[in-house]
Amino acid sequence: VTLIQPILVGAILVVAMVHLKAFSSRLLSRAATLLFVVLGVAFVINPDLTNQLAHLVGVGRGTDLVLYALFPATISMFLHLYRRNRQLEEKLTGMARHIAIQEAARLRSDGSSADENSAGARLA
Amino acid sequence: VTGSASAASKVFVVIPAFNESQVLASTVWPLLPYGYSVVVVDDGSSDNSAAVLRDLPVLFLRHPVNLGQGAALQTGMQFALGRGAEYVVHFDADGQHPAASIDSFLEPLRRGECDVVTGSRFLTAEDQLLVPAARRWLLRGAVVVSGLLTGVWLSDAHNGFRAMTTEAARKIHLHENGFAHATEFLDQVRKARLRLKEMPVPIRYTSYSQAKGQSASNSVNILLEILLRKLL
């Protein structure tokens, strides 16, 4: 056992626990987290596993395979975040729009009654 | 003509405004004699936009947070439709557009010749001369980009002055909160098979409007925004 192995295993477990507790409630996401833990711990304990897997798909080293796998994972995370951000923005827009229309004020209508004179006056 | 006053009040002029309090009142003033329903959408300004319009007969809407010009236009349009608008006009807050042109924009709509009218500063030689050279080239580029992206080829793709019928306004829903709404607008015009006509309009360039207008570097941002949106 090298020094890095327990550190990595610990890190994997902490990340997974935080993820399960804070972010994921969907089954699919929980299953993915579980898979991440199992694979991660297996690779850390037996580094040669990644090498064997790499050779299986024609990649020279296990480290390279992990790096290649990281690439689509990062991209998909980015896209996911982008979409989430977009959805949030749309919700915020809808809310702001609703408020703006609800609170529309006639600053002054010609021949207005006195109570319509203030900027805060609501339209009927 | 009797009834013309009520007809004018069915024309809703939507002015999106973000920190435009310096010029907002002077943009709104020339519109008032025509009897249009002027809708100012304050896009979460941090200046005193409401105060400078106090005592003017305008409809004032305010986004509680800043969302962008596209969002402000959409809010104004939605509001106008809810208030029985017959025509909706988009009008820039910085005083670039002549109020007198609105009626000429409405004419082809009233005659049923088209559903949407957009302004162009490139249809007459005089109008074109008013555009600073650097800006002219930038806008030429914008025309090509928006033509390629939307399939609608105009002479001036980024003119904030537009007029449309209620039916057309109902078919448009801007989701682009930022300045990419200009391209999105054309995209939706084409998809809804609305008939579009460009009409000449001079743009008054002032040092104020040039400072507030889109810089060349920002147009790259807008392009990126459009592309990201198209791809994702």
What is this structure's SSE topology?
The complex is a heterodimer of chains A (124) and B (232).
Chain A: H1 4-23, H2 27-45, H3 48-56, H4 62-102, E1 105-106
Helix pairs in contact in A: 1-2, 3-4
Chain B: H1 4-9, E1 11-17, H2 21-28, E2 37-42, H3 49-52, E3 59-62, H4 69-82, E4 87-90, H5 101-110, E5 116-120, H6 125-129, H7 133-150, E6 162-165, H8 166-171, H9 181-191, E7 196-200, H10 207-212, H11 216-231
Parallel strand pairs in B: 1-2, 1-4, 2-3, 5-7
Antiparallel strand pairs in B: 4-6, 5-6
Binned, the helix content of chain B reads 40-55%
What structural category arises from helix and sheet content of chain B? Answer: alpha/beta
Beta-strand content bin of chain A: under 5%
Largest sheet of chain A: none
Give the strand line-up of the largest sheet of chain B.
3-2-1-4-6-5-7
Strand content of chain B: 15-25%
User: In terms of quaternary structure, what is this?
Assistant: heterodimer
Q: Structural class given helices, strands, pairing of chain A?
A: mainly alpha
Shape of chain B: globular
The residue-averaged pLDDT of chain B reads 88
Count every helix of chain A, treating DSSP H or I runs of 4 or more residues as helices: 4
Helix content estimate of chain A: over 70%
Q: pLDDT under 50 segments of chain B (min length 5)?
A: none
* Annotation field: number of helices of chain B: 11
**Strands of chain A, count:** 1
How would a crystallographer describe the biggest sheet of chain B? 7 strands, mixed
Mean pLDDT of chain A: 83
